[in-house]
Specification:
Layout lengths: L3 E4 L27 E3 L5 E8 L2 H16 L5 E7 L3 E4 L12 H7 L2 E4 L7 E3 L3 E7 L2 H4 L3 H17 L5 E4 L2 E6 L7 E11 L2 E9 L19 E2 L2 H5 L8 H22 L3 E3 L4
Parallel strand pairs: 3-4, 5-6, 11-13
Antiparallel strand pairs: 1-3, 2-14, 4-8, 5-7, 8-12, 9-10, 10-11, 11-12
Helix pairs in contact: 4-6
Length: 272
């Protein structure tokens, strides 16, 4: 994956009458004239490598302002972080098991941010994806956008032979989500500002799972955490940036496809 690339949106072709988000086209006393089309919205992709959390956070804020002003296209930041803990804007710090002294000894910062969700661990071997997306341009509401992110994580896992999916009532991505021992493989937390999304997902690739013992993952003390490496039984001894970049190359195109599928068609050429 180059440091920056662009995934082109659809060709703006006609959409079927049943492909509008939520089901059929709006019904009325007469059929609307014109044609339903999907908007073409490109997705710029940036690979940032391993980058400090605060630096990536600042990058997101700058892109949100620029995207809201229409100065840049939708942008997907792909990266990994050094070890860090983040708290959602309303999350309970009691879900951090480690003391401030223990975190300081490990060199791990605890940062409260504006996303939703509970406490999350980020670290080496974990793919982090921050989609900066102006939802109105795609005709996507927030819930279908979240579902697209969850599906993209599951699709990425599937490329490694790992079956995963969403778990009702528990955002993110899970292995064996409805089984007797569900295991969380991907976390999710989003913020919407000026109609633009930021923050995003964290997918465990070769992450050191022992580091999750510092927290109750996503505020769930009983939750077991896993990774692609563990589920695929890779002989991995340590997290690698190379594994994260490989996962990033798989994640970006499947997310673009999921966003395309979730986009509502637009009616053009209709009578006033």
């Amino acid at each position: 994956m180059p440091a920056r690339s662009v995934l082109r949106g659809g060709n703006g072709g006609p959409a079927s009458s049943t492909s509008q988000q939520g089901g059929e086209r709006p019904a009325g006393n007469r059929q609307p004239t014109g044609h339903w089309y999907r908007a073409r919205v490109d997705l710029a992709v940036e690979w940032l490598g391993r980058i400090d959390y605060r630096a990536a956070w600042e990058r997101q804020h700058a892109l949100v302002v620029a995207r809201a002003a229409g100065e840049v296209p939708d942008t997907l930041l792909l990266l990994e972080h050094p070890p860090v803990l983040t708290l959602g804007r309303h999350s309970d710090p009691a879900h951090v098991r480690a003391t401030p002294e223990e975190l300081a000894a490990l060199g791990i910062e605890l940062i409260r941010v504006e996303r939703g969700g509970e406490v999350t661990y980020h670290g080496p071997g974990q793919l982090v994806a921050y989609p900066i997306v102006r939802l109105a341009d795609r005709g996507i509401l927030l819930r279908p956008f979240v579902r697209a992110l969850e599906a993209a994580m599951a699709d990425t896992c599937a490329t490694y032979g790992v079956r995963a999916g969403r778990r009702e009532g528990s955002p993110g991505c899970w292995v064996d989500p409805e089984g007797p021992a569900p295991r969380k493989i991907g976390a999710l937390g989003i913020r919407l500002e000026r109609g633009v999304t930021y923050h995003g997902i964290a997918l465990n690739v070769t992450t050191r799972l022992a580091d999750f013992e510092l927290i109750d993952p996503c505020g769930m003390p009983e939750a077991e955490v896993t990774s692609i490496a563990r589920e695929a039984r890779w002989p991995i001894e340590a997290p690698t940036t190379a594994s994260v970049r490989d996962a990033a190359e798989r994640f970006a195109p499947v997310l673009a496809c999921e966003l395309e599928a979730a986009s509502a068609p637009l009616l053009v050429g209709a009578e006033a």
